[in-house]
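Researcher: I need the complex structure. Ligand is phosphoenolpyruvate. Inputs:
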Amino acid sequence: MPARRPLVAANWKLNGNRDSNARLVDELLSGLDNSLLVEVLVCPPFVYLSELAARLEGTVVMLGAQDVCAEAEGAFTGEISAAMLREVGARWAILGHSERRALYAEGDDLVARKFAAAQLGGLTPILCVGETLQERESGRTLEVVGRQLEAVLDHCGVAALQNAVVAYEPVWAIGTGKTATPDEAQEVHAAIRRMVAARDDRIGGGLRILYGGSVKGANAGSLFSMPDIDGGLIGGASLKAAEFLDICCAAAGQ
Ligand code: PEP
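Model: Output:
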């Protein structure tokens, strides 16, 4: 089984502007050691992709989008297709983030169609899954995460997971300062891997599964040391270069 290279992805959400984005990536680039054995990716708001693609060209930092339209073209006002995102430099797309699921009513079927559209348009999906506090407290974590994952497996087939990443993000940990303990996160990561491995052992074993939810420099090392945690999807802490660089070092095991 090839080793799974750690990945740290920054979700900037609805933050930043031209100047602050430029400052942030410049600080990241000057702090990132090229020999670091970790992949790093930033996902700014759509409108900044193009200029950040130019700034990041030839560097180790990759570029992703925070969402994608499930359709390739047509009468879908306000939407942006995977091919358009790819054309302006994105190579990855976050899909099914809990904020999209909760605030924009994105259900499992739509997320699965977005996953397929992203791959068709040449983007690597980062599929977010995770339970609410109420679901965790009622013992339904694995059922909820399983349902979210199976929707994609059923729609796209297990082979689609060869070129994708899953991010386990407990909703109660996102932006709250509460983090799943390494053991809590590991339990869900291992379950996700088992679900995929049940359909294809090799793909399950090679799947990169990120943890997201109030990751900081101070807690990243203990989370990333767990056997099924292959890196992180980072929100708030990705807006501070020093903090994000600490997280990247932790993912690289340094
Ligand atoms: C996220 O938005 O995906 C996230 C994990 O946010 P935070 O790190 O701020 O909890």
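Model: Summary of the prediction. The chain has eleven helices and eight strands.
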